[in-house]
Structures are given as C-alpha cells and as structure tokens.
Amino acid sequence: MVWHPVDSTGECLRESGGATGSERLYYEEISCLYPSLSNTYMKWEYETDYIFKFSSKMEANPWIPLVACALYVVAIFSGQAYMKNRPAWNWRNTLAFWNLLLSVFSFVGFMRVAPQVLHNIYYYGLRDNVCESPYSLVGAGPVANWGLYFLLSKFAELFDTFFIVIHKKKLLFLHWYHHITVLYCCWHTWVNETPTGLIFCAVNFGVHAIMYFYYFLMAVRCKPKWFNPIVITVTQIAQMVVGVFLTFSSLNYVGSEGCWANMTNIQGTLVMYASYLFLFLQFFFKRYGVGIRKTKKVD
C-alpha cells in the first residue's frame, strides 16, 4: 500500500504497492505524514510524470554515461596538455559562484531527501531499507524528483575538474576516478531501481553541502580559522563507511523473495565504495600526517 498526498484535498489516500516478505511495508509520503513539511514544498516538486518518461529513456540509452565519462577523461588530459606551457587562468570568482551553487543545491537536496530516509530508518528494519521497492520507500513524489536531480548533478560536477586544470592545480587520481565511477554508479542504481540509492543520495547531499561551501569560502578567501579541512575528509570517509556497510549488508538479502536489490549493482557499488574508502584513508594519512612516525636510531 502506498500513501501519498492528494493536491485537491491534501488528504492521504492509499494505492496498491509492493511488499517485502510476509509483511507489507506501507509507503508514507513524508510531506503527508508531517504536514508542517508540506508548507515548504513547491507545486513543481510534486510534478513527477516526466520521471517515468526520463527513466525509460535512461534504460534505453546506457551508452550516455559511458560516453560522458570517456569525453571527460579525454578533456582532462588534453586540457592539461594545452595548459602545460601556458600561464594559469584566474577564474576565482567563477569558481566561487560554482561552489556556492553546488553547496546550496546539495543543502536543499539534503533537506528534501534526509527526512524520508530518517523516517524509513526509524520505522523500518535494515532489510526493508536495502530491499524494499523504491516505489514503497520513495514513491513518486518530491523525494523521487530530488533523486533524479541528484543523478543529473553528477554530470554537472564533472566541471569541477575544469577549474583544477585551468588553474594548473595538482589533479589527484582520487578526484577524477571518483567523478567517473560515481556518475556511472548513480545511473546504474537509478535504472535498476536499487533501494539503497535513497540513503546514498541523502548522505552524499549532506557531505557535498559542507564540502562545496568550504570550497566556496576558500575561493573567496574567507575561510574561518576554526573550519579545519580535516572535517571535510572525515565526513567523506564516514560516507564511504556507510556505503560499504549498506552494500555489504545488502549481499545477505540479494536474491531473496521480494528483494529489489540488484546483484550486479550491489557488487559494483561495494567495490566502488571500498576503493573510495581505501583512497580517502590514504589521502587522509598522507595529507594530515597521521600515522606511525619513524624515529632515528641513536648509536
């Protein structure tokens, strides 16, 4: 059974929906369960007919993220070759605006998706959150809208690298590897309707809201002394820990009756998050000098 708000009356009505196991899980539209939240939503956020059309196009065109990633890699290395013997550009103001835009977008996305995720975690068990139909966990309302915006933002975030290249900053493997894999993973997760995508979306929105705001402050040279960059890395590592935990937990349920988790997606996502965790920990220890220090042997 699915709960959703009705525009004309504002009341919650029931529609047929999916279920997991022997017990039925009821989808409860977050803005319907908590009426105070409905006042913060705009009418266009409830317009979701295009989502199904867009999803069918995505399913029919799996080449799109592959081509986008290929062009991205070509642009990176050709751009670095072009800039090699040229002076760095000064696009600091544009960079500041770009980071602020992504920070605000991520913050709004987090405020839209996180309440639904917290509700689902509080009322439903681990199996439901990693196995239940997305139509039950998310439905086709504002949260689904923001899930789609989240996916599309991964294409936009590829432009982060443009600023690194034109400013001739050091480009880490972690940076472009992360952009490529997360783009394709988000696309694959959406097309295969993998339930864990909702939690990943909320966590990533939250981390990016903080991260891009930090980058904005750095670009305008207004970073307060108390805002230590180690906080950004720690939140990123925490995100990877959550990702590894959820995908590993999903392996226990994939293939069981009523579980929507896709084995290929879960395995790929687990490898992705595990590699992120390794690379971010490596970056953390190298950047902040955390580890065992060698001492000189005294003769």
From TrEMBL:
Q: Which reaction does it catalyse?
A: an acyl-CoA + malonyl-CoA + H(+) = a 3-oxoacyl-CoA + CO2 + CoA
Q: What is its EC number?
A: 2.3.1.-
Q: Which keywords belong to this entry? A: Fatty acid biosynthesis, Fatty acid metabolism, Lipid biosynthesis, Lipid metabolism, Membrane, Transferase, Transmembrane, Transmembrane helix
Q: Where in the cell is it found?
A: Membrane
Family membership noted in the UniProt record: Belongs to the ELO family.
Q: What is this protein called?
A: Elongation of fatty acids protein
Q: Which organism is it from?
A: Seminavis robusta
Which superkingdom, per the lineage? Eukaryota
Q: Which Pfam families match?
A: ELO (PF01151)
Per the record, its GO cellular-component terms are: endoplasmic reticulum membrane
Q: Keyword Ion transport on this protein?
A: no
- What Gene Ontology terms for biological process does this UniProt record contain? fatty acid elongation, monounsaturated fatty acid; fatty acid elongation, polyunsaturated fatty acid; fatty acid elongation, saturated fatty acid; sphingolipid biosynthetic process; very long-chain fatty acid biosynthetic process
Segments crossing the lipid bilayer: 63-83, 95-114, 172-191, 197-217, 229-254, 266-285
